[in-house]
C-alpha cells in the first residue's frame, strides 16, 4: 500500500501546479504512465477518486482534499519525530573556528595535527575572514573560538587568552636599502624607513592595524604600491624588489637574507605581534574546547 508514501504529497502538489499528468510527470522526471498508475493505485486503496479528471486544470475531489490533509499531517509528524529523536543521538563534537586566512596558513598546520591526535573525534569548521567579521560572528554565537591579533582591540564581551608576543621585521628590497644603507643601522631611522614605497595588507586586517599605528606614531603617511589580503603575498613581493613590507616573525620562519632583500628587526617597544584566542564571555567551554585553547597557547 502506497497511502503513506512520502512522495505522494510531492506528486499531488505537482499535479495541482501543472494541471495535467503529462506536464507533472515531466517536472517529476518520471513517466506519465507511471504517475497515472500510481494515482490509480492510491484511489483503489482508498476506494474513491482523489483527482477530478473532468476539471481543467486537474483538481482534488473532496476525498482527495482529505487525503492531502492526511499527507500534510503525516509529513509534519515525521519531521517532529526526527527532531525528537535527534535529541537522543550522540552528536559529533564540533568547533567552529574563526581565523584570518593568512594567520591560518601559519598556525593551523602546526596546531591542528597535534590537536587531532589528542581529540580525533572533534570536527573543526573554519571561517576564514577578516577580524571584523569573525568578531561579529563570535559575539552572535555563530563561532565557538576566534584566533586573532591585537588582543587590546578585542571586544569587551570576549574572554581573551593571549599567546606570547613575537617580533616584527621589515623586509627591505635591495633597490631600497642599497641607496639608504643608514636605514639598517641602529638605532633605526624609522621616519626614513617609513618614507619608502610599501606593500601593505588590506585595511581591516590585524597586521594592517598595527602597521598603520607604526606610521601614525612617526607621523608618516604610507606610500602603498599595492594592498593584498595575504601577508605571504606582501612578503614575496618585497623579496622580489617590489616594495618593503612589515611582517611578524612567524611568517619568516623559513626565510633567510639574500642579495635581493634584507631583514630588519623592529624594536620590540615599537612594534610586536600579539596573538590571542577568544570566546564569548557567556560561553561555557566543553573539555575539548578548553583543550584546543591550551594547545594554541603552548
Please tell me how large the radius of gyration is. Answer: 31 Å
Shape: elongated
How do the helices and strands follow one another from N- to C-terminus?
Answer: HHHEEHEHEHEEEHHEHEHEEEEH
Largest sheet: 5 strands, mixed
CATH fold-level name of the largest domain: D-Maltodextrin-Binding Protein, domain 2
Q: Helix content range of the residues, please?
A: 40-55%
Number of beta strands: 13
Rounded mean pLDDT is: 88
Output the CATH class name of the largest domain. Answer: Alpha Beta
> What class do helices, strands and sheet pairing give?
alpha/beta
Instruction: Give the second-level CATH assignment, the architecture of the largest domain.
Output: 3-Layer(aba) Sandwich
Q: How far apart are the termini?
A: 63 Å
- State which percent range the strand residues make up: 15-25%
| CATH homology-level superfamily of the largest domain | Periplasmic binding protein-like II
List the total number of helices.
11
The unreliable regions are 179-183
Explain what this protein looks like in three dimensions.
There is one protein chain. About 2% of the residues have low confidence. The chain has 3 domains: 80 residues, Orthogonal Bundle (Arc Repressor Mutant, subunit A); 95 residues, D-Maltodextrin-Binding Protein, domain 2 (3-Layer(aba) Sandwich); 107 residues, Periplasmic binding protein-like II (D-Maltodextrin-Binding Protein, domain 2), CATH 3.40.190. The protein has 11 helices and 13 strands. The longest helix has 25 residues. Helix content is 43%, strand content 20%. The chain is α/β, with parallel strands linked by helices and 298 residues long.
Amino acid at each position: 500500500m502506497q497511502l503513506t508514501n512520502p512522495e505522494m504529497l510531492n506528486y499531488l502538489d505537482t499535479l495541482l501546479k501543472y494541471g495535467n499528468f503529462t506536464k507533472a510527470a515531466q517536472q517529476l522526471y518520471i513517466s506519465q504512465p507511471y504517475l497515472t498508475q500510481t494515482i490509480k493505485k492510491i484511489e483503489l486503496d482508498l476506494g474513491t477518486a482523489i483527482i477530478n479528471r473532468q476539471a481543467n486544470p486537474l483538481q482534488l475531489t473532496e476525498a482527495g482534499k482529505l487525503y492531502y490533509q492526511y499527507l500534510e499531517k503525516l509529513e509534519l509528524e515525521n519531521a517532529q519525530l526526527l527532531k525528537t529523536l535527534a535529541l537522543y543521538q550522540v552528536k559529533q563534537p564540533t568547533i567552529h573556528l574563526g581565523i584570518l586566512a593568512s594567520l591560518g596558513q601559519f598556525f593551523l598546520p602546526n596546531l591542528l595535527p597535534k590537536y587531532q591526535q589528542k581529540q580525533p573525534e572533534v570536527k573543526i569548521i573554519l571561517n576564514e575572514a577578516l577580524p571584523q567579521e569573525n568578531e561579529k560572528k563570535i559575539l552572535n554565537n555563530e563561532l565557538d573560538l576566534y584566533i586573532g591579533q591585537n588582543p587590546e582591540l578585542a571586544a569587551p564581551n570576549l574572554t581573551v587568552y593571549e599567546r606570547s608576543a613575537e617580533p616584527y621585521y621589515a623586509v627591505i628590497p635591495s633597490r631600497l636599502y642599497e641607496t639608504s644603507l643608514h636605514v639598517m643601522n641602529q638605532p633605526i631611522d624609522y621616519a626614513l624607513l617609513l618614507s619608502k614605497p610599501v606593500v601593505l595588507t588590506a585595511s581591516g586586517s590585524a597586521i594592517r592595524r598595527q602597521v598603520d599605528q607604526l606610521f601614525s606614531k612617526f607621523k608618516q603617511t604610507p606610500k602603498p604600491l599595492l594592498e593584498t589580503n595575504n601577508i605571504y603575498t606582501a612578503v614575496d613581493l618585497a623579496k622580489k624588489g617590489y616594495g618593503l613590507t612589515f611582517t611578524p616573525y612567524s611568517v619568516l620562519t623559513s626565510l633567510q637574507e639574500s642579495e635581493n632583500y634584507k631583514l630588519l628587526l623592529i624594536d620590540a617597544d615599537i612594534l610586536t605581534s600579539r596573538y590571542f584566542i577568544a570566546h564569548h564571555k557567556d560561553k561555557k567551554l566543553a573539555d575539548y574546547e578548553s583543550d584546543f585553547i591550551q594547545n594554541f597557547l603552548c
